[in-house]
Amino acid sequence: MYKLKSMRFRAGYSMGYRSPGIKELYMEFSPVPIVEIHGNPDLNPESAHYFSLSAEYSKSILNTSVSLYQNNITDMITEVQSLTDPRLWSYENINSVRVNGVDFVLRAKLNYGFSVNASYSYTNPTDKNTGKQLLNSSNNNAGLMVQYNYSKKRYNLGVNLKANYYGEVPYNEMDEISGETASKIHNDHLIWNLTTTHKVFSGVILTLGVHNIFDTYELNNIMNLFPGRRFFTGLRVNIHELKFKS
């Protein structure tokens, strides 16, 4: 790292190694009724060489950074769809994969209790043998989170509004009649979530919120399945913080 006033510049290299897990080796499970994923006991460990460059600016209420990276992976373990039955998936090794990417992050504290976090990520995972993008992976993803905090006497309010953008995802689909496989794309989509917390007494926190506010749902996208709009609530009591009048 090199620091220059409010700027920080970083360069990094790391080497990684990962053995396949129990799930990838042996488990057979069905995350949704129309999908079956099978383990593969013949998997090899994967290894990686990771290079990165980044620049960060931080001062007062603003923090922002941009990072460039490349990850070269050998024997990458990933889920592969069966060519004969689109419902079946298994874990396989991909001989050599290169992942180039850019990450951008912005954090800002605003007036009147507001703060904003924004992020954008461009990722290009490529099979080095074929030169093509890996299936079931997205190039573009982004997020925006707006937070608001308010306090008055014995009441504290926290509001968290979050939007996640998921880019297009290429995949293969087999025609059940002809047996031919066609290249297709899952559409990009935006998911909004809202969470509110209410600290009404010392040690008592009530949570209310809704996931997927606008009921975004894509039936065919089984790898990124959102089950529609969901409301939720929760109650937390921190006993050690409770205060009782004598």
Notes on the protein architecture:
The chain is mainly β and 246 residues long. It is 2% helix and 64% strand. It contains one helix and 16 strands. Strand 12 (169-174) and strand 13 form a beta hairpin. The protein is globular. The model has no long low-confidence stretch (mean pLDDT 89).
Topology:
Blueprint lengths: L1 E3 L2 E12 L3 H4 L2 E2 L6 E3 L7 E14 L2 E20 L6 E22 L4 E14 L4 E2 L6 E13 L2 E12 L2 E6 L6 E6 L2 E13 L2 E8 L18 E8 L9
Parallel strand pairs: 4-7
Antiparallel strand pairs: 1-2, 2-5, 3-4, 5-6, 6-7, 7-8, 8-9, 8-10, 10-11, 11-14, 12-13, 14-15, 15-16
* Count of runs of 4 or more consecutive helical residues: 1
- Helix fraction bin: under 10%
Give the ordered list of helices and strands. EEHEEEEEEEEEEEEEE
Q: Beta-strand percentage? A: over 45%
Structural class: mainly beta
For the secondary structure, the number of strands is 16
Estimate the global geometry from the Cα principal axes.
globular
Radius of gyration: 23 Å
- What summary fits the major beta sheet? 14 strands, mixed
Low-confidence stretches: none
State the end-to-end distance. Answer: 56 Å
Keywords:
246 residues; mainly beta; 14-stranded mixed sheet; 16 strands; globular
Briefly say what this structure is.
The protein has one helix and 16 strands. The protein has one helix spanning 22-25, and strands spanning 2-4, 7-18, 28-29, 36-38, 46-59, 62-81, 88-109, 114-127, 132-133, 140-152, 155-166, 169-174, 181-186, 189-201, 204-211, 230-237.
